[in-house]
From TrEMBL:
Organism of provenance: Solanum stoloniferum
Phylogenetic lineage: Eukaryota, Viridiplantae, Streptophyta, Embryophyta, Tracheophyta
Keyword terms, alphabetized: Lipid degradation, Lipid metabolism
Keyword presence, Metal-binding: no
Lipid metabolism among keywords: yes
GO annotation (BP), single: lipid catabolic process
Name under which the protein is recorded: AB hydrolase-1 domain-containing protein
InterPro entries per the UniProt record, alphabetical: AB_hydrolase_1 (IPR000073), AB_hydrolase_fold (IPR029058)
GO MF entries: hydrolase activity
Length: 296
């Protein structure tokens, strides 16, 4: 709304599996095949489709804004030289590329559970946080020592500084949404392995069949074109996009053209503050608008 008020033509996308994106030309959302995807597929199929649609409709390069997984798929895509010809610049909030220092107790316990191939225990293709099997699973995780799920947003995202009660209520009516269990396994592999790579099928033979090599290929973020305009904003209290992991990402960008890389660090912000913090407009969004306007 702030972008629209400032004269921008705004297009909003949804990641597949959310309630706004459950249709398919042949597959039913109740089938396991519908949920056979990870964020690799968002990089290969969904992001290009979105960018192409907007580009064809407008005939103009676009400014991209992503938060959390929206930053992950953009960084992975840019690292392979994709979308750069149609994207003018990118603003990445709570950037997620590396996850090994994630400090959220619930996230850490969940990541360990998923890496032990929770899918075999579950038999669940869709991970629906509002469904009974997932609720039962979360109760087990929340019973672990050191995990306090009384305040679920804090348990997942860190101690947000700037939320008000009505915004949180509205947020919790809409979040969290479904994703594929396989996608969470992939994210958990990123936590475990400390590298950004394609989905690991768990055996040399399966990886060989999918990739032509025994280990899943890595996304090399140093390949992002050094003259591509990037705005990164991250928070000191963010338990998902941890300061150390963002440091690893910034290290990958150390050869980026200085005038093309804008980095904002907000000491008191956690993961949700970037989306629903009451101070986000003044602290973050106004900076993004200035950044976009400076790109011409």
């Amino acid at each position: 709304m702030i972008l629209a008020d400032n004269g921008f033509d705004v297009w909003i996308s949804n990641i597949r599996g959310t309630r706004y994106s459950r249709r398919h030309v042949t597959l039913d959302p109740d089938s396991a095949d519908y949920w056979n995807w990870t964020w690799d597929d968002l990089v290969v199929h969904d992001l290009p489709a979105l960018v192409d649609l907007v580009f064809k409709q407008t005939g103009r390069k676009i400014h991209y804004i992503g938060h959390s997984m929206g930053t992950l798929i953009a960084l992975a895509s840019f690292s392979e030289g994709k979308q750069i010809d149609k994207v003018k610049s990118a603003a990445l909030l709570s950037p997620v590329a590396y996850l090994s220092h994630m400090t959220t107790a619930l996230g850490d316990v969940a990541a360990r559970a998923f890496v032990s191939e929770i899918t075999t225990i579950f038999g669940l293709a869709e991970f629906n946080p509002r469904g009974e099997p997932v609720s039962d699973f979360l109760k087990v995780l929340c019973a672990q020592a050191g995990v306090d799920c009384y305040d679920l947003i804090t348990a997942l995202t860190g101690k947000n500084c700037c939320l008000n009660a009505s915004t949180v209520d509205h947020f919790l009516k809409n979040e969290p949404q479904s994703t594929s269990t396989k996608n969470l396994v992939h994210l958990s592999q990123t936590v475990r392995d400390g590298v950004l790579s394609k989905y690991d099928y768990g055996s040399n033979d399966f990886n060989q069949a999918h990739y032509g090599e025994t280990k899943p290929p890595r996304y090399n973020l140093t390949n992002i074109p050094h003259d591509f305009p990037l705005f990164l904003s991250y928070g000191g209290q963010d338990a998902l996009s941890d300061v150390q992991d963002v440091g690893t990402l910034l290290d990958n960008l150390k050869y980026h053209d200085v005038e093309k890389l804008h980095v904002q660090y907000i000491k008191d912000y956690a993961h949700a503050d970037f989306i629903i913090g009451i101070t986000a407009k003044d602290i973050v969004y106004n900076q993004i608008i200035s950044f976009f306007r400076n790109q011409g």
